[in-house]
Amino acid sequence: MPTPPTALAPVSRTDARRNRALVLAAAQQAFAEHGMSVSLAEIARRAGVGAGTVYRHFPTKSDLLEAVMQQRIDRLARVAAEHLRAPDPGVAFFAVCTEVIASTPGNQALCDIVQSGDGWPRALLQSAGARFHRAMEALLVSAQQQGAVRADITLADVLDIFTGCVAIQRHQLPDRSLVRGAALVLDALRPNAALPAVTKPGPAPNSRNETPARNETDGTPRCPICATALRRPPTGRPARYCSAACRQKAHRRRQG
Q1: Within this chain, do residues 168 and 250 fall inside the same structural domain, yes or no?
Q2: pLDDT by residue (tens digit) across 37-50?
């Protein structure tokens, strides 16, 4: 007597999930090694499934690439979210940074494809990226509140540093640890009194005129470094610089 179709459905769904996971794992490695030149037939061979199984889950190569990238970004988002519960926010923040940088060079071909245009990033990637950014920003804020990361660092700074460190990390060590250059760049995120804060650009490097610039029409005193209008204090001496950063910059110029 034939088995009722309902009895086979759970098994089919389980097999479908397993096959999809096999295809994604094979595609991750194949795309990383060969970029978009790899065929779906080759991915099916690596996954140990038929070509029809690949096409059933991913009608086009772009659909498969999008799923691979979403899977990777979702994994990094989960890693970042899990570290939010760590007792030491600073250690957690730098651990996630290390994971992002150390695991990306093997996926550089994927990143190059996504950054090449052709309508990327797709909607799914944008959603996964937003989740990663939220988790990463929460980690950053916690680490800054602890004093483990410089207060002037923003999420955009962190993402830019990821891009630079991944390029350095292409000379990757066998144990996936950070190369020295990438570790030095990450260290720049830590508080250091010897390092100036990130500030708005000042005048040309050869300019040494520290006489406050003034608008002759309104007589408003201005910072000699960045030309920002100075607020007049209700009491005490008038300020010469708009901020401590500009005062420090003027001091460095005098020392120079």
Answers
A1: no
A2: 788 889 999 989 98
